[in-house]
Write a structure and sequence with these properties.
Helix content: 40-55%
Largest sheet: 3 strands, antiparallel
Structural class: alpha+beta
Oligomer: single chain
Order of helices and strands: EHHEEH
Number of domains: 1
Distance between the termini: 21 Å
Strand content: 5-15%
Number of helices: 3
Length: about 70
């Protein structure tokens, strides 16, 4: 069982953490290369933090072929 509390990561934080623009994130999401956002309210959206972190880790791993994640902990 996952003991880490679930939370949404809002757009400003996603942009800050990835260094990507809103447009780039929307394009990646539309292409299926970034996790789908969750509609929180009629005007707010966010990403599930665990899905975002998995994507983030996959980008790091992809940029370092031949290394294992365990070596970067």
């Amino acid at each position: 069982m996952n003991t880490k509390p679930r939370r949404f990561v809002r757009l400003p934080e996603v942009m800050e953490r990835t260094g990507l623009s809103r447009t780039a994130l929307e394009r990646l999401e539309a292409e299926g290369l970034f996790p789908k956002h969750v509609k929180i309210s009629s005007i707010a959206k966010g990403w599930i933090e665990a899905e975002f972190e998995t994507w983030f880790d996959s980008r790091i791993a992809a940029s370092r072929p031949g290394t294992e994640k365990a070596n970067h902990v």
